């Protein structure tokens, strides 16, 4: 079990908190064992939107697998808001020094700054307070116009809804892009990328559409990725003609169903190889008869169609 601990301050923005919390809660519905908890200086925190939240006041013991996330709050300026005790700042710092991950949404980056966790690191925050954050922490490198930044287990995101992007990224990093894409679809949101980094996941690149027929086709392909799925079989399973399957899939994803399956196979094989599998083992695990096709695809810039 991993803990996700939200450190709250007075005036917390509900979406800064609820967006990431929903992502990690949804992860539990897909079998990932997270336990969410909420801590603050007092046992009640008033949100900026007027909802009062009940919280714990005791800072929990943490392991390196746990995450501490600081949501943002209503802050015309950072310097006069977001009171956090020295004990809480030391707790954040100790967690990171022990190998744990800390994260923030919006103005929450200021708390990480006060804990000394932004010094020498890249970070971001809401565009309204980016300049102030840079002024308060001159040793930090504040990156404008990105959704989130990851630097040595310090993860900071921009304003409000970008906390969802941050949380989806963390789930994808820890548990793979398939789970992240499933959570995003459940939440009816796009799985977005950092403005700095290329979106590398096939699932995340090609699930940002609203065509339910194509989503059903993708579900079939993803659940049977190692099988030889013909266009005729996909058409039968979705109640469409082969021509309609091809047309809809290309319009939504920019590729054919077989090319999509090939890209998925390559991505999963790369994941297995990265975790110690041999080329032959990875190739057979994802449906290739041997490693020759996998070697050719790895060497190519764009995966080729191959049933």
UniProtKB/TrEMBL annotation:
<feature type="domain" description="HTH araC/xylS-type">
    <location>
        <begin position="215"/>
        <end position="296"/>
    </location>
</feature>
<dbReference type="InterPro" id="IPR052158">
    <property type="entry name" value="INH-QAR"/>
</dbReference>
<keyword id="KW-0804">Transcription</keyword>
<dbReference type="InterPro" id="IPR018060">
    <property type="entry name" value="HTH_AraC"/>
</dbReference>
<dbReference type="InterPro" id="IPR029062">
    <property type="entry name" value="Class_I_gatase-like"/>
</dbReference>
<dbReference type="GO" id="GO:0003700">
    <property type="term" value="F:DNA-binding transcription factor activity"/>
</dbReference>
<keyword id="KW-0805">Transcription regulation</keyword>
<dbReference type="Pfam" id="PF12833">
    <property type="entry name" value="HTH_18"/>
</dbReference>
<dbReference type="Pfam" id="PF01965">
    <property type="entry name" value="DJ-1_PfpI"/>
</dbReference>
<dbReference type="InterPro" id="IPR009057">
    <property type="entry name" value="Homeodomain-like_sf"/>
</dbReference>
<dbReference type="GO" id="GO:0043565">
    <property type="term" value="F:sequence-specific DNA binding"/>
</dbReference>
<protein>
    <submittedName>
        <fullName>Transcriptional regulator GlxA family with amidase domain</fullName>
    </submittedName>
</protein>
<dbReference type="InterPro" id="IPR002818">
    <property type="entry name" value="DJ-1/PfpI"/>
</dbReference>
